Structures are given as structure tokens and as C-alpha cells.
Amino acid sequence: LQALSSHLHHWNHTTLGNIFIKKRKCLAHLKGIQHALALHPSAHHFSLEDILTSKYNSLLRQEVVFWDLKS
Questions:
Q1: Whole-angstrom distance, CA of residue 22 vs CA of residue 15
Q2: CA dist., res. 2 & res. 22, Å (int)
Q3: I want to staple 30 with a disulfide (CB 3.0 to 4.6 A). Which of 16, 41, 52, 71 is the partner?
Q4: What is this structure's pTM?
């Protein structure tokens, strides 16, 4: 049982990663893209903003599930 627990813990961090770190990095990228959009609007920046917004929303949903499982 201990070996399984250790294996699952390792799998969780290597496969899923830390939700909070991913969320912080994604938000930083999103803020950078929004700053770039304010200075030089382009179709590429709008596309990146859409992608990062979707990714951030997905991470927020994962965080909700994480806390639901913790409680």
C-alpha cells in the first residue's frame, strides 16, 4: 500500500503537476499578452489571449475539483 501511495504521488506531480504553480505562470503570461495587446494589438496576440484565457479557466476548474477532493 505504501509503494502504491508513493507511485501515485509521483505520477500526480509528473503527469498533472502543481495546479497552483501552473495557475500563477498562466496568469503571468496572460498579463504579459494583455500588456502587449495594449501596446501593439495584433491578431496573434488576440489568439494567444483566447488560448491563455481558456487555459486559465481550465486551471480554475481543476483547482475547484482539487479543493472538493481535499474536503
A1: 13
A2: 28
A3: 52
A4: 0.77
